[in-house]
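Lay summary. Proteins are chains of building blocks that fold into shapes, and those shapes determine what they do. In this project we predict the shape from the chain. Here is one chain we studied, written as its sequence of building blocks.
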Amino acid sequence: MRIFRGLMQWSTLLATAVGTVLGVAATLVADHARWRRERSERDRDALRTAFTEYLAALSAARDAFSRAAPSSEHVGTGHVAIGEYGVYAAQQQLELAAERTLVDKARRATLSVLEFYDVVVAGYDSDSREYVRAWRSARQSRTALIEEMRKALQRT
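And here is the predicted shape, written in a compact code that computers can read:
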């Protein structure tokens, strides 16, 4: 009987210790999962912000360029004008936060807007083939970029 009582005391002690260890482990696992989820949300929010800022700057530049007055001396100077709209700063944020394929599409979108600028300041009318081609190119590269951005946000 004495042995049985001693054994019960040890088993109670052992069960308590095992329960405590399992409780601590479960808490640690839950905390780690919550931390990962919160980190993922922060990363997604940072990406979304970078994407939004880049697209807003690019759209502002493109819209302003569509109203630019023809000037042969401004052909080839779109990089200066696009910098004034914050496109390069926003693109650098993308380079820090996004994957390489997305950054490449952002560069193509920037280049297509620069080409559009050159067409406008070269004096092509909005119904000319050159203007329409440049406008479509800018729109298509932006659409491809947005699609890549959506994929990146789903992966995050």
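What the prediction tells us: The domain at 41-155 is CATH 1.20.120 (Four Helix Bundle (Hemerythrin (Met), subunit A)).
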